[in-house]
Every structure is written in C-alpha cells, then in structure tokens.
Amino acid sequence: MPFAILTDTTKCIGCRQCVIACKKENGLAPDFPRRWDLEDGLSARNWTSIIDRPGGKYVRKQCRHCLEPACVSACPVGALEKTGLGAVIYDGRKCMGCRYCMMSCPFGIPRYDWDQTVPYIRKCIFCYSRISAGRQPACTEACPTQATIFGERANLLAIAHQRLREAPDRYLGKVWGETEVGGTAVLYISDIDLAFLTRGQELSSQPLPERTKPAMNAVPFAFLGVVSAMAAVNWIIERRMRLEREPEPPEENEGA
Amino acid sequence: MHRARLVKLILWLFTGLAVAVAAGRFLYGLGATTNLSDATPWGLWIGFDVLSGVALAAGGFIVTAIVYIFRFDEFRAVVRPAVLTAFLGYLAVVAGLVFDLGLPWNMWHLIIYWNPRSPLFEVGWCVMLYLTVLALEFLPVPAEEFSALARIRRALLRIRLPLVIIGIGLSTLHQSSLGSLFLLMPYHLDPLWYSPLLPVHFFVSAVGLGLMMVMFESHTTAWLYHRRPETPLLARFGAGARWVLLGYLALRLADLAWRNQLHHLWAAQWQTVMFWFEVTLMVIAPVLLLSIPVVRSSRAGQWITAGLAVAGVVVNRINVGGFMHTGRGYYLPSWTELAISCGVVSMAGLVFMFVVERFRVWERRPADPAAASEELPEADNAPRLWLGSPRAAAEAYSLAFVLAAALGFALLAPQPAESRGIPPTPARHARGNEELRIDGNLDGFGVTFRHSSHQDVAGGKDSCVTCHHMNLPRDRNTVCSECHRDMYLPSDAFRHDWHASASGAGLSCADCHPKGALRSRETARHCNDCHKDLIPEGSPIPVKSYRAIGYVQAMHQLCIGCHANLGEELTRCGACHHGLEDFIDLPEVSARRLERSGRRVVLPPY
User: Fold this and answer.
1) ipTM of model
2) Does pLDDT of A255 surpass 70?
C-alpha cells in the first residue's frame, strides 16, 4: 500500500506550518541564505518550502518520492532506497558523497551539507519513521487547511480527480505527478501551472531509470563480446604469423 | 636536462599549492573551498579530473590492443609510456575523486554495497579493476631492475595477453559507461549533448583521444628529455586517429539530425558557441592538420595537433560534466578547484618523471640528470646555481613546495566558512540616545531599536562587543533573535525542578506522569489540566505540547494567515510596526524580505 501526499494549492494559505513541523520533526538547524542555495527555499536544513507565486498563490515544494526514482537507480552504493510504503529514504552510513543523485533528480530536490566537513545528502524522507509507525507525516498533520493531505496513493488520486470533476472552474484539469517520470507519490492539483517546479519543462511519462537500462543491460554482453573478439583476433593473427615463419623456431617475446 | 628540472620545479610549486588547498578543503568543507552549489553539484573536478582523466588515459588500452592483439610490433616503442600514462591517469582520477567526494573515506563502500542498476557503480568497479590490470601490466618494467622480482616478472609476462584482453574489455565498458551516467539527465543536459547514444559518443571519442594522447605525451617527454620522438610511428597513429575523429563528428551530427535537434547548431546561444568550439578543437582542426602530410610527419605539427585534440576532449567532458546543464545555474570553478586539479596533474607528472628516469620505460633511458650538469656551458651560471647539481635541484624543489604551500594557506585563511553569509545590517551609527530603525533579524521587517537601553542592559560602555563582533568580517551584528530567543524559538516556560521540589509546587512524579507509561513530555499531563486559565475559554488553539510558539510566528503566520477577515489593516506591516512603513519599504529591506520569502521561518532547534 504505497502512501502519497496530495497538495491542493487552491487551499494553501501560505502559513508555513508544514515547514515548521518538518523542521521540528527532523531536528533541522536554523537556516540563513547561503551561497549555494537555490531560489526555491529548499536547502539541507529546509526539506520542504512554500514558494510564493504571483497573485497570492502558494505552492509547497518537497521531494516527489517518484514511483521509479532516478536517484535510487543512480546511487552507486544503494544509499537511497524506495521503500514499500512509498518513501524514498536515505542511509548516510552507506553514502560516499558522489552527488550523482543531485545531478539525476528531474525535480532538483536533493540538497547537500555544503558547509559541513562531513556532509550528507539531505531531502524529505516522507517522515519514514512516522509512516511506518502508522502515523502521518508531520507536514500533513500540521496543515491547518487540509491543503496537503496524506493517504494511500490510489485513494488520493481518486480524491484529486473527484475534486477536478466537482469544481472544474477552480482547477486546471491536471493532476501533477500522476504520470510524470512514471508517476510520483506527491501529487498536486492547482489553479496555476506548476511547470515552474521543473523549470518550465514538460516531463514525459517514461521513468528515468528506463533510460540507463539499455546501456546497463548491455554491459555483460559488451564485456564478453569485446573480450572474445579480442581473443579471437589475436588467435587468428598469431596463427598467421606462426605459419609465415614456420621453418624458424618461435622467438622469445621481449618485455612489456 | 635543465628543461626537466625547471618543469619539475613548476610541478612542485603546483603540488605545494594543492597540498595547502587540499588541507583547506578537508578542514572547511566543500562549500567553503569550491564554487559548487545545490544548483551545480558537479563541477571542474568531475569534468576535468574524472571524465577527462579517464578519457585521456585511453591511450593505454588502445596501444596495448594495437601491439598485443593486432600485433603491430613496430609500435612496441610506445607501449610502456602509454601504459604508464594510463596507470598514472587513473591514479589521478582516483585522487581527484578523493577531493570531490563528500565522504571519500567511504569510497570502498562500492565493494560491499552493490547497486548494479547504477552506471556509476559499474564505472567504479571497472576503474578499480582496470587500475589493478594496469598495475600488473606495468609492474614488469620496474621489476627488471630488481633481480629478486625476476620470478614475479616472468609470471606477469606469461599472463600479459589475458591481462591486455581483460583491460580492453574493462576500458570499453567504463569509457562508455561514463557517458551512460548522463542518460539520467535528459531534462538538464543541453540537447546538443544529450543523446541516448552518449555511451557510444564517449567511447569513440576516447579511442580517438587515446591515440592523440599517446602522441602528445610522446612529444612532450621527448622535449623534456631532449629525446628523439617516434615521429614516423606517430604519423601512422595520426592517420588512424583522423578517421576515428571524423567518425565521431559524423556520429554526433547524425545523432543530432536523427533527434531533430539540428537547428541548435546555428541558434544564437552560448551552448552553440561551446559546441562549435569543442568540435573545432577536438575534430575539425586536428583532422584538417593531420590531412596535410607535412604537418602529420613533422614534430611540431604532431605536437600542436595532439594538444588541440586533447584540449578539445577536456572541453567536451567538462561541458557534459556540468557546464552545459541548462537551468542548473551559473558556475565557474574557484581558484581552489583549479589549484587542486593542477596539483593532481602535477603530482602525476612528477611520478611519471621519476619513473622514466629510473626505469626502462623508453628503449633508451634519459641520461642521468646529474651527468648532464657537466655538459652545461660555463657562462650559464644562474640556472646552474639553482638546478645544476641534483642536490641544488632537490633544495629548489623543497623550497618551491614549501613556498607554494605557504601561499596556499595564506590565500585560504581569510575565507569565511560560509561564502554569502549574513548580509550587513543597514543600521545607522548610534548617536547618543537616538532611536534606530533596524531590520535586526535581517528578514525584511523593521523595529525601532533603542541603542542606549540595550547598551545599559548589556553592561555599559564596554559591552559593544556583545552585539558588534569586531572579530567578524564586515562587522556583522548579532541578530535580535540571538538574545530575544522567543521571537523565533518556541519557548518553554515549564520548570521541571520547580514543579518537583518541595519548596516549589511539591508534586510527585505520578502527579503528572501516569504510572506504567514512559516518563516523557508526550505522555505527561497537559499544562492546562492544572492551569485552567492557561488558554482562554473556547480558544480554537489546541494544546499539543508544552511549547509556546515564538511570537514572530504567532503574529506573522497564525493571525495574518488565518484571520485575514480581521481586515485589510492587519495585512499592512505598519499596522503594528508604527512609523516604520517607509523603513520597511526601503529597497534593501524589502529586497531582503523578498529574498527571504519562502524561507521566512528561522527556527533554531530546541
């Protein structure tokens, strides 16, 4: 039963109670603007943020917990993991700090402890200890207007489509996160275009790990192919050379 | 031999600088010593040290394939230097990674934690294995000098062919898989570079570059040691490399055409310029030059051509590695990043020179550096003093190393750990009892601030440093919330010892903590069970914990956010911040408020 979060931007009043709850729940230190921050308000110490959009609209940004996460397939040591509950969680003890997950995330979510000498990747982990204990994440619990709600993904998708059906004038007729990059656990319905979350780009429904799959599947065959081709070529050439100088005794090879 | 010593001196300078910067990088962290950011997590170190390093070390597997597999025995002369270059190249890649990885001491986790779906996992394994193969391929050369190692040398020579074949297989895999890394970034990497065929692009360019790198390395070392380069042999490399490079360009263009991205080739954008710059350096110029027989068979022609192609591939790898990721933001490497990169290359160069001077890497070893000093002309006194004898040279190297390291430390020292940090406060100078209007928390709001009363409370005239930290750069003042902690911090007025002591409330444990349950805040009774008047009758605010919310949040979120129906009045800052409207609207203050929007909450941990 994969869980999900549905954020309805029309209900958000921008009070940032979710941000406070997140910081409290995860024990995140206070934050000042740093050189390495992006404009979206996320940082190693802010795992969710409220983005003010023109016209008094607020959009909450957080990890999308993709159904087929690029970051999980990118991590060479498996420090990131997509759990059965839907959360993409991080194990800092495995991490070696290559930051490939940051490069591969289509939403630009993972952030880094740039100011630390022992830095880790930081991102929303769907309050994994809470949801595995049967509670809801701190952010959805804190939301005073039910703008962001927690539940099973199938139920939340049904709720989202029901709201779109019941009030078509209130929303743009789209559930963000339903299909992008194979679907995400964090869903949005909105009255403003949310393409700014991906820098204006439309994401196709092809999951990103699918793109490296052909190359990675070819690896053993490429290795065996190259090795056997080289061995065969060498065998043929050696044999020809031996036949050419058949009468003479074979020479001792010189060093490397 | 003087050339070699002068070059060594320069390499020692770079090494010294890099050692100092490396110390800074591990003491202060990546943020303080690089220009990397959340927008551009990969920069020069990945693009140059890792991606280019691997590509430029491709000469090793190309040349061993040509000699040991295809049996072009006439190229034997370049095998040993090519394998040595490849080995040192891969060592440099690993060294570069040590600086780039956030937790380099966990690098070995690749061995125990597996994620076979990750291209980087595969690259890591291939590099580890290939480094071992290269070491075994090269080991017979130093082993020649030690009779004790004769048996090992013979054993290694016996397994040379399988080693070479495995090495070619591993190289094919990771040269191409470095391209696969970027297949995950279709929404970031510019369409001029992103392609499902990236692994093929990387592999083909590595083959072409391997050949050009052997050429470049051969001419450079020939110049260094006054050696006759293998020009006629290398001309045949050049002829071959031409077709590989042309094939690479054809592949890139056909790929662009197939993906309908050809229009990017003449778009007026920065990426197009970089594309043509890279392609000209890497393919067009070398192919044209190599097609002229005079250039191809001349020493200078080969050297310059190879240099251009090498530079072209470096540009290509840096572009793919981070520069051409549109929308990621602006990135230029910091001097520290450049220093580390130069230092890693310099160290590899020093090891290369050490090895070629002591072992039989070329058919004829360079003459002993010490013997050369006798051949120097008498008049040439100054360099002789400096680098004439091996001892003087060693002294000069040590001096260069120490001076460069000192310079590095000196340049590093004034850098604060946070680069942007807190902007300076626009408060005016305190004059007597003047009331200041300040944005003390740097969040874009204003308060009236009585300097004199604060001074009195803090301890009189000597208390300036309490707020004005003279030792901080740009005189950063303490923010208001540093002392007025309840502005942001959820405050907790509950005093446990007073409640428990006989002279205080005199309660027993069980009065608040129910029996059997864990004694914690969560399980204890709520304050308003006893303090009935703590919360007004009918208040919608539930008591969830014992903490009161900081009053800035209480004001700026709960009231304004939820009770907008109290009227327009409350939504204007001036409704409470009397007489401060114009201050709050000052460009620098309102700009800060805008910058903070989305991150207004500054909540220290409890």
Assistant:
1) 0.90
2) no
Nearest by CB to residue A227, choosing from B83, B122, B169, is B169
What's the gap between Cα B580 and its chain centre? 45
Residue from B67, B93, B105, B117 whose CB has the most chain A CBs within 10 Å, to mutate: B117
- In this prediction, what percent of chain A has a pLDDT beyond 70? 95
Q: Considering only CB atoms, which chain B residues are within 8 Å of A19?
A: 601
Instruction: Tell me which DSSP letter residue B320 carries.
Output: I
- Is residue A209 predicted with pLDDT exceeding 70? yes
Tokens of A186: 């964090």
Helix (H), strand (E), coil (C) string for B509-529? HHHHCCCCCCCCCCCCCCHHH
Tens-digit pLDDT profile for residues B12-28: 999 999 999 999 999 88
The least confident of A234-248, B355-369, B561-575, B581-595 is: B561-575
Q: Under an 8 A CB cutoff, do A77 and B106 touch?
A: yes
Q: How far apart are CA B13 and CA B402, in angstroms?
A: 8
What's residue B64's pLDDT?
A: 94
Task: Give B83's contacts in chain A (Cβ within 8 Å).
Answer: 256
The answer on pLDDT for B571 being more than 60 is no
Spatial separation of the C-alpha atoms in residues B241 and B216, rounded to whole Å: 13
Q: Provide the β-strand partners of residue A4.
A: A151
Compute how many other C-beta atoms are within 10 angstroms of the C-beta atom of residue B140. 19
Average of per-residue pLDDT across A198-208? 89
DSSP structure string for B371-422 = HHGGGS-TT-HHHHHHHTSHHHHHHHHHHHHHHHHHHHHHHHTT--SSSS-P
- Kindly report, residue by residue over A27-36, the tens digit of the pLDDT: 887 776 777 8
The per-residue DSSP string of B176-234 comes to HHHHHGGGG-TTTB-TTT--TTHHHHHHHHHHHHHHHHHHHHHHHHHHHTTPPP-HHHH
Distance CA A135, CA B20 (A): 50
Given a contact cutoff of 8 angstroms between Cβ atoms, the answer to whether B177 and B130 are in contact is no
* Separation in Å, CA of A90 to nearest CA in chain B: 14
Whether B172 sits inside 8 A of A223 (CB atoms) is yes
Cβ A96–B32 below 8 Å, yes or no? no
Closest CA to B201 of B62, B124, B316: B316
pTM value is 0.75
| Interfacial B residues in 408-427 facing A (CB < 8 Å) | 417-422
Q: Which tens digit of pLDDT belongs to each residue from A160-193?
A: 999 999 999 999 989 999 999 999 999 999 999 9
**Distance between CA B53 and CA B86 in Å, rounded?**
9
B558 vs A: CB within 8 A: yes
Q: Is A73 helix (H, G, I), strand (E, B) or coil?
A: helix
Query: Chain A: nearest CA to B536, how far in angstroms?
Result: 20
The answer to whether the CB of A20 falls within 8 A of the CB of B566 is no
More confident of the two residues B539 and A169: A169
Question: Are A32 and B603 a contacting pair, CB within 8 Å?
Answer: no
